[in-house]
Amino acid sequence: MDLIVAKFGGTSVGDGSRIKKAAQSVVNEYMKGKQVVVVVSAVNKTTDDLIGLSNEAIGSNLTDNQKAEIMAMGELTSSRLFSATVESLGVKSQFIDPYNELWPIMTDSNALEAKIDFATTNKMFKGIEELLNQGIIPVICGFLGKGPSGEITTLGRGGSDVSAFLIGHCLDANEVIIVTDVEGVMSTDPNKIEEAELLDEISVEEMWDLATHGAQVLHPHALKYKDPLISAKIINFAYGDLSVKGTRITGPFEGDMTKSVSLYKNPISLIALVGDGMLKKSGLLAKLTACLASNNINIFGISAGQNSMTVFVEKQDSQKAYRLLHTLVIEDDVFSSLSLAEDTSMITIVSPDFAEETPGIISKITEPLRKNHINIIEISSSQTAIVVYVKLEDGKKAFELLKEVLE
């Protein structure tokens, strides 16, 4: 028998009519002979309202445990509403919250950013399986966990999506469906460009990059829990139909999204071009990259300042690149001069945590290098990666130090 995990976001259960439509979509799949587990978020804006109320009433005296209990009220309410609505449509249902003995998601004692105890959690799903085998639809609170002493914890940002993917994995589901207020993943924001098109599918890696750069469809943290063997899709609640196409998320969580530190095997050379007010001139970057690309020279990085641009290429290409860019400097009045700097080592640090939960990571990286008298030639960062250039002779030592930082 096919098993679906359907997660309904806050807007999907934003009022009574939406709750009924969502419940009906679940019942429809159940009547097709499928087992369905529902994961439900708090009604739209409920959690924010509860936090606002508690801040006004209690302020800084509010403990983390108290805050978790208060924040949980949104999911406690929506799970009861959703389960009762399913039963009103003629199908047995049971809401499952952390106060219930069948509650499956166990965590550590961190009230607001709890880490999941996977071994214990996996064992706890036997109770949910028994409900399913009895023809009951479980409605499970998203975002919440239970700590070692039975206290309510929260899973932090993207918690309800985490719940859905985790439950799908533990129950060996056929499909995880994220029901939200968009059609799926679009080629860009349709509110900004009307011609935006719905994507049939997107890889986990692509979804990760979109999410870390501002797309609101799915929180990047949740993608860590996506089982590569389980189908997943994002659909719009407006259809009231869990079988609609939406956008399918494909592949496992791997590649650049795993934590790693790597020292590039070859030396990297820096070529600096200077000119007055370069940032105000259009087309300079295109000229620079086209010049090197047409000669098959790979660019490892570019940094730009008010009056300069620095290009990073492999040492074996540096002399050729240097001469080509010198020709560009002579031909274009915007550039005044260029220089070929000393060779460097390039160290790349990758972590999915950078985008969401690692404030101060740049200082954590630079401090051990400073203490060991290693000068940073250049540093660049994105949502998930930081690249550091140091003197060539300092590369191996810096690499070992930065591995310790990541660990």
UniProtKB/TrEMBL annotation:
Which reactions does this protein catalyse?
Answer: L-aspartate + ATP = 4-phospho-L-aspartate + ADP
Top-level enzyme category: transferase
Gene3D superfamilies reported for this sequence: 3.30.70.260, Acetylglutamate kinase-like (3.40.1160.10), VC0802-like (3.30.2130.10)
What keywords are annotated for this sequence in UniProt? Amino-acid biosynthesis, ATP-binding, Kinase, Nucleotide-binding, Transferase
Enumerate the Pfam families for this protein.
AA_kinase, ACT_7, ACT_9
InterPro entries, alphabetized: AceGlu_kinase-like_sf, ACT-like_dom_sf, ACT_Aspartokinase, ACT_dom, Asp/Glu/Uridylate_kinase, Asp_kin_monofn, Asp_kinase, Aspartate_kinase_CS
The question of whether Amino-acid biosynthesis is a record keyword is answered with yes
Question: So, what pathway does this thing act in?
Answer: Amino-acid biosynthesis; L-threonine biosynthesis; L-threonine from L-aspartate: step 1/5; Amino-acid biosynthesis; L-methionine biosynthesis via de novo pathway; L-homoserine from L-aspartate: step 1/3; Amino-acid biosynthesis; L-lysine biosynthesis via DAP pathway; (S)-tetrahydrodipicolinate from L-aspartate: step 1/4
The ACT domain sits at 350-407
What EC number(s) would the UniProt record show? 2.7.2.4
**Example GO BP:** lysine biosynthetic process via diaminopimelate
Which superkingdom does the taxonomy of this entry point to? Archaea
- Give any GO molecular function from the UniProt entry: ATP binding
Coiled-coil stretches: none
Q: In the UniProt record, which is one GO cellular component term?
A: cytosol
Q: Which family does it belong to?
A: Belongs to the aspartokinase family.
The name on file for this protein is: Aspartokinase
Q: Which gene encodes it?
A: ask
